[in-house]
Structure formats: structure tokens, C-alpha cells
Design goal:
Shape: globular
Helix content: 25-40%
Radius of gyration: 27 Å
Family: Belongs to the glycosyl hydrolase 3 family.
EC number: 3.2.1.21
Bound molecules: 1-deoxynojirimycin
Enzyme class: hydrolase
Strand content: 15-25%
CATH architecture of the domain at 385-581: 3-Layer(aba) Sandwich
Pfam family, one: Glyco_hydro_3
Strand order of the largest sheet: 11-16-15-14-12-13
Subcellular location: Periplasm
Distance between the termini: 49 Å
């Protein structure tokens, strides 16, 4: 027992020292003076967050009377309180009726829009258009901030390699490089250049960390990954968010290699706060402090509070463990007062950055709220972002785009005239009635001579087939069939995982019946995750992946269907051939026995291919692009030189179009094995028919670095392959040698 206690108190000393260093360096005078005036109870109040009202986004906790608690200085932040008037009312209590008048932070899950709903984040990531992604976050911030919200629990930057996991819809897909770029863009969009302005909001990078690596793709499940995988795959988007200035981070629900993230001091104190120098604050996830009891890591609520505070969790969302136990823990010497002061300083500093000490009511403006929410400008931008997010997966014989003068179009399927699901999960204050459905979008796009026939065919889920015969009858009358199939919004998102990722219910059967009519069929998919699509990919001539596009679903899809816009999205995540391949991702390792189906003694399956159905980075266009052979500025690159990798891309088709030119590398031999490909750059370019553009990517030693056997980040000299192309599979290849230092 003894040596353990000595060890623990050594850890405690280190943490006390680093805590006071933090306080000395970051406290400004105003905050220092405020801190001096605060009682221990008031300090702990600042570390406490509750959900307001009945709009819960997690299991209900013990009921409290928020107004009374605010008055007593026992709340630092509320989540789920919205609306300029409501938040002003609550802020007035904090500012005018609590002893110290410290303003509240109002948090909400503004994940892909506030009232104007943009595509789900996975869809937006498919645009590979960082300025569009930034702009979408910007509009979300403008709307939310006008309605009293000054803190969003976004961006969710969890890498996801398992499509069963429902929260795959909320992030940017499987790749750490793309994930990091998108994380930066989203933080910039929410926070702008000046977090103190009344139209910017505080970002929160979540869920720290590796939440997406949930075993078996089941939400909240155990995560057990190597430290190398953690640092190389799961952490880069978080680091990027911290570098971009994200003011807050949120703990993940999961355990990571035996330690729940909320109690994981390595992650929070060591990596985030010390190595990365993060000076914002960390909030737990909903009740995740107390859930450490269920994990089997904490004895009771009091122990959980102690562990979370030692680990560096500054604010308690919804478990009320801090408010219940922290004062006692401090008085009994279990938690050093300096840790409380650090947490409070972090929270107050962020409140100051957000401008709350200058004007606590700057976010509560009913006039701005009326003027800005869902306005025409925001709608137009949402339509633009939505059409950029659409991915063309197949287009045999130029089935698409359709002629807007067609005589009769049959629009079939449970998502064709759906006024609910296209909003997707986490749709904040988005309202069903705001959705422009696909049916409406198509009717507005076609000529006045075109008849648009409609039938639902079947439900999204379930066994009912009563509508199917009618749908086939309708389909038979048309020149072309558009089948709008996929998932409901509740099939993805938190706690909504699927054990089968095919088209749900009887939808595949409906599609088969439509195809059997012999009419050309266009499949419009709406879904929150990759689906298994082997039959459609072999039998349906045109397939559009549209994700869940939000308010402007109909116009955006119609723009693409009828060729007003040329699709340019690329998959940010691999679409497996079959569920048995999952987890599947493009940046896998080589193994000692790589192979293809049917080869003996190889790393293959007996019954399905090894390759995915659609690879990461894949997406077609109505035009074609050709790539000239890769040119390197030199074949032997000195260690501190830059390798320039260029190609000239030409639009060889007859329509204007945008291409995402992607750069991948492979380190051919290293002291630890490296992935077969790693994305290291991309550029989205727009080309007129016949136009060419040279694209050059610069690679430095830093881009080639990885963690070696002792987990030191190094770049090892030797041979590297570089690949350039329009997806991760169909690429051109060249090679260079990096010379020793
Ligand atoms: C739990 C979710 O995991 C998290 O992402 C969200 O921000 C909180 N609930 C608050 O709604």
C-alpha cells in the first residue's frame, strides 16, 4: 500500500504545481479579483451545468429549480435553454440577483444549423469544400447567437471507421487529415475571428477521445486501441481544433484502454492541457462523471467527482456530482483548492473571451432573432452547401442529368415526399415544416409540361407492402423512375446504431420491383451512414448519395438531378461491400499476406471481396477529368527540402465541373509499419470543358512523420510513394527518396 500512496502524492504535487503555473500565467486582473471574492460554493457553482426545461438531450437527472440555483450562484452554465427572451430572463437572474453577478453560458447542440438546417456533418464533409463548411458553421453561429445561445457542442470531430455506429453522421468520416481540416473550418465558422462579437459562438471539440472506435460499432461501447492509433488516427482532428482556438472540449462517454475518458488524466491533463497548451475549459459529457460508477471505475458520486477533477474535467454536465461533493472533497484535502481555482479560472476566462463580462445580454436580441432565423440568405447558402455535399456514385450511359422536359416522372419511395427525416439527427431548432421536400423540389424544377407522379411504395422500416403494387402501377406510366430510399433520421445519431446497414424494411424489394418495370431508375439515397448497396450498384443505372441534406433537401437534389449543378462530392468514408468487412477504411496496413478473394493463405474472405464497394474519396461527375503523369521536383529530396508533387488535371467532358484532386503517400519501409495510403492534401478545382489546371502539393518532412517504437514523432529517410487521383483507389503513382539529415 505504502509505495502506491507515495506515488499518488507525487502525482498530486505535480498536478498542484502545474495548476498554479496555469493560474499565474493566465489569470487577468479582473478574473483574479473575482476569484478572490468567490466562496468555495460559488466556485463550484461555476463548474456546474444543467439542462433547462423539458428539452432534454440525455436521461433526466434529479429535478432542480434552475432559477433558484442561479440566484444562489450554484450554476455556471445551462444547456438547452434557447430563445432571446428566455435566455435574457435567465441571464438577468444571474447578473442581477446572484451575489457576484457572473453571467451564464448557454450551450446547445448546434451541430448542423440552428433553425436553417444544413446537411448532416458527414454529408457536408463529402463536399471537401472547406469554405462551404466554414460558411455553414458561420450561419449556424449567426442564428444561434441571435437566439441567446453562445456555446455550441460542436464540432464533433470523432473519426469513425464503423458505419454501424450511429454517430458517424455527426463527424467528418474516417480520415484524420480530412477530419483535421474540417475541424479547423468548423471552429473558424463558429468562433469567427473574434469570439467576443455578438454573432460568434464558442465551439466545443468533442468527444475527447476516440469515441468513434466503439467496439462492435455500438454507442458508448468500450474503446481499446493502441496509443499509436490514438495519436495518429483519432487525435489529429482534436489537435487541429485546439490549434484553431476552440474554446472548449468535451469528454467522451467511453473508456479508453481501461480508463473512462472523463477520468482520464493522461488525455486531458497531459495531452490536451499540457502538451497542446489548451487554455480553454473541458466539460464532461451528459452525466459522464457519475457514469464512471457504472463503468466500475468510481466507488460512488463523491469518488467520481474527485477522479474527474483530478483528470482535468472543469465543468460537470448534468451529473451534479461536483455541486454535491466537491466542497467536502476540498475540505477533506482530497482535491487541492488550486485545482478548483484552475477550473474556475478557465471557465471565467472563456466567459470573458465570449464577451459576457462586457455585455451579458449581447446574445439575447429578439429583433435579431426575428430577422435572422431562416432568412432568405441563409436558405440560399444552405441550398448551395447541400448540393455540394451530394455524391454521384453511379451514372451508367449518362442516365443523369435528366431532361426537365420529360413527359412523365414517377417519384417513388418513403423519402420522396418526406417532411421529417431529411433534417437528420441533432437538428437543433429546425422544424419539419421548413423542409422543402424532394417532391416539391422536383416539381419546381421541371417544365410546365412535365407530370410528376408520386407513390410512397412502402415505409422506411417495417414489413408493410400495401403501397407497393400501387407504386409499381404509377412507375409503369413514367419515362423515368426516381426512387428516394434510405434511412429515417432516427436511424443514426446518438444511441442509434444499426446491426444491419442495408436499405431498411422492404425498400430493396420495392427497388427491385421498380427496376423490373424496365424503365430507367435513378436511386436517390438519403441516409446518415454508409449503406451496403451491392444489388443497386449492379442493377440500377444511376445512384446519388444525398445523405440527409436539411431544410433545402428538395431544391438541392433537383439542382443535381436536372443538371443545373454538376455533382462534385466525394465520399469521406468507405462504403463497404458487405457488413462483414467492417471496420473497413482505406488507410489500413499491408499485412504479410495481402491478397484478393480466392487466393489461398492470404488475408482475404472466402465469400466476399476484400475491396469496398465504393472507396474513400470516390465520387463521379457529369463530366470527366484526366490526370497527367505525376511530376516531382526531384527524385531525391534532402531532409529539410520540400517535395513538390504536381499533376495537370483536364476537364475532358462537355460540362463545367469541380474535381477534388487528392494526394496520398506511402512510406515503403519504416521502423513501424505504415498504412498503404495516407491522405496528405487535396484541392477542389473548378474546370470548364477543355480547361486544364496544374495542381501542386508541397510535402515536407513533417508531412511524412509518424510515431516510432518509443512513440516519438519522427520522419525516417527512405523511399516514399506518392499517389494522386480523384479517389483513394484510382490513382497515379510516383516515388521519391528522402535523404538522411
Ligand atoms: C450527449 C452527447 O454525447 C453530446 O454530444 C451532447 O453534446 C450532450 N449530450 C448534450 O446534449
Amino acid at each position: 500500500m505504502k509505495p502506491i500512496r507515495i506515488f499518488l502524492s507525487a502525482i498530486m504535487m505535480v498536478s498542484i504545481l502545474s495548476v498554479s503555473v496555469f493560474a499565474a500565467q493566465t489569470q487577468d486582473r479582473q478574473i483574479r479579483l473575482l476569484l478572490q471574492r468567490m466562496t468555495l460554493e460559488e466556485k463550484i457553482g461555476q463548474l456546474t451545468q444543467y439542462s433547462y426545461g423539458m428539452d432534454l438531450t440525455g436521461p433526466a437527472g434529479e429535478p432542480i429549480k434552475p432559477e433558484e440555483e442561479i440566484r444562489k450562484g450554484r450554476i455556471g452554465s445551462l444547456l438547452n435553454a434557447t430563445g432571446a427572451e428566455k435566455t435574457r430572463e435567465l441571464q438577468t437572474i444571474a447578473v442581477e440577483e446572484s451575489r457576484l453577478g457572473i453571467p451564464l453560458l448557454f450551450g446547445l447542440d448546434v451541430i448542423h444549423g440552428y433553425r436553417t438546417i444544413f446537411p448532416i456533418p458527414l454529408g457536408e464533409a463529402a463536399s471537401w469544400d472547406l469554405s462551404a463548411i466554414e460558411q455553414s458553421a458561420r450561419i449556424a453561429a449567426i442564428e444561434a447567437s441571435a437566439a441567446g445561445v453562445n456555446w455550441t457542442f460542436a464540432p464533433m470531430v470523432d473519426i469513425a471507421r464503423d458505419p454501424r455506429w450511429g454517430r458517424i453522421m455527426e463527424g467528418a468520416g474516417e480520415d484524420p487529415y480530412l477530419g483535421a481540416e474540417v475541424a479547423r473550418a468548423r471552429v473558424r465558422g463558429f468562433q469567427g475571428n473574434d469570439l467576443g462579437r455578438s454573432d460568434t459562438i464558442l465551439a466545443c471539440a468533442k468527444h475527447f477521445a476516440a469515441y468513434g472506435a466503439a467496439q462492435a460499432g455500438r454507442d458508448y461501447s468500450t474503446v481499446d486501441i493502441s496509443r499509436r492509433t490514438l495519436h495518429e488516427i483519432y487525435l489529429p482532428p482534436f489537435k487541429a481544433a485546439a490549434e484553431a482556438g476552440a474554446g472548449t472540449f468535451m469528454n467522451a462517454f467511453n473508456e479508453l484502454n481501461g480508463i473512462p475518458c472523463t477520468g482520464n488524466r493522461y488525455l486531458v491533463r497531459e495531452v490536451l492541457k499540457k502538451r497542446w497548451g489548451f487554455d480553454g475549459f473541458v466539460v464532461s459529457d451528459w452525466d459522464s462523471i457519475k457514469e464512471m460508477i457504472v463503468h466500475g471505475f468510481a466507488e460512488d458520486g463523491r469518488h467520481a467527482a474527485e477522479l474527474a477533477m483530478h483528470a482535468g474535467c472543469d465543468m460537470d454536465m448534468m451529473s451534479a456530482a461536483y455541486i454535491a461533493h466537491m466542497a467536502d472533497l476540498v475540505r477533506q484535502g482530497k482535491v487541492p483548492p488550486a485545482q478548483i481555482d484552475e477550473a474556475v479560472t478557465r471557465i471565467l476566462s472563456v466567459k470573458k473571451r465570449v464577451g459576457l463580462f462586457k455585455d451579458p445580454y449581447q446574445y439575447c436580441s429578439p429583433e435579431r432573432e426575428r430577422e435572422l432565423l431562416l432568412n432568405d440568405k441563409h436558405q440560399a447558402i444552405a441550398r448551395d452547401v447541400a448540393r455540394k455535399s451530394i455524391v454521384l456514385l453511379k451514372n451508367e450511359n449518362g442516365t443523369l442529368p435528366l431532361d426537365r422536359d420529360l413527359k412523365r416522372i414517377a417519384l417513388i419511395g418513403p423519402l420522396a415526399d418526406n417532411q421529417t427525416d431529411p433534417l437528420g439527427s441533432w437538428s437543433a431548432k429546425g422544424e419539419d415544416k421548413d423542409i422543402i421536400t424532394l417532391r416539391r423540389g422536383i416539381m419546381d424544377a421541371v417544365s410546365s409540361n412535365t407530370e410528376v407522379l408520386f407513390a410512397r411504395g412502402c415505409d422506411i422500416d417495417g414489413e408493410g407492402t400495401q403501397d407497393m403494387a400501387e407504386a409499381v402501377r404509377v412507375a409503369c406510366k413514367a419515362d423515368v423512375i426516381i426512387a428516394a430510399l434510405g434511412e429515417s433520421k432516427n436511424m443514426s445519431g446518438e444511441a442509434h446504431c444499426r446491426g444491419d446497414i442495408g436499405l431498411p424494411g422492404r425498400q430493396l424489394e420495392l427497388l427491385q420491383k421498380l427496376q423490373a418495370t424496365g424503365k430507367p431508375v435513378v436511386l436517390v439515397l438519403m441516409n446518415g451512414r454508409p449503406l451496403t448497396l451491392v444489388w443497386p450498384s449492379q442493377n440500377i443505372p444511376a445512384i446519388l448519395e444525398t445523405w440527409l441534406l436539411g431544410t433545402q433537401t428538395g431544391p438541392a437534389i433537383a439542382d443535381v438531378l436536372f443538371g443545373k449543378v454538376n455533382p462534385s462530392g466525394k465520399l469521406p468514408v468507405t462504403f463497404p461491400y458487405a457488413l462483414g468487412q467492417v471496420p473497413i477504411f482505406y488507410n489500413h496496413k499491408m499485412t504479410g499476406r495481402p491478397g484478393v478473394k480466392g487466393q489461398a493463405y492470404r488475408s482475404t474472405y472466402a465469400d466476399i471481396p476484400v475491396e469496398p464497394l465504393y472507396p474513400f474519396g470516390f465520387g463521379l461527375s457529369y463530366t470527366q477529368f484526366s490526370y497527367s503523369p505525376i511530376r516531382l521536383n526531384r527524385a531525391k529530396v534532402a531532409y529539410d527540402e520540400i517535395a513538390n508533387v504536381s499533376t495537370t488535371v483536364t476537364n475532358t467532358g462537355s460540362r463545367q465541373g469541380a474535381e477534388v484532386v487528392q494526394l496520398y503517400i506511402r512510406d515503403l519501409k519504416a521502423s513501424v509499419t505504415r498504412p498503404v495510403k495516407e491522405l496528405k492534401g487535396f484541392s477542389k478545382i473548378d474546370l470548364k470543358p477543355g480547361e486544364s489546371r496544374k495542381v501542386t502539393f508541397a510535402l515536407t518532412a513533417e508531412d511524412l512523420a509518424f510515431y516510432n517504437q518509443t512513440m516519438t514523432k519522427v520522419t525516417e529517410p527512405g523511399k516514399f510513394e506518392v499517389f494522386v487521383g480523384g479517389n483513394s483507389r484510382d490513382v497515379l503513382k510516383a516515388e521519391f527518396t528522402l535523404l538522411s539529415k
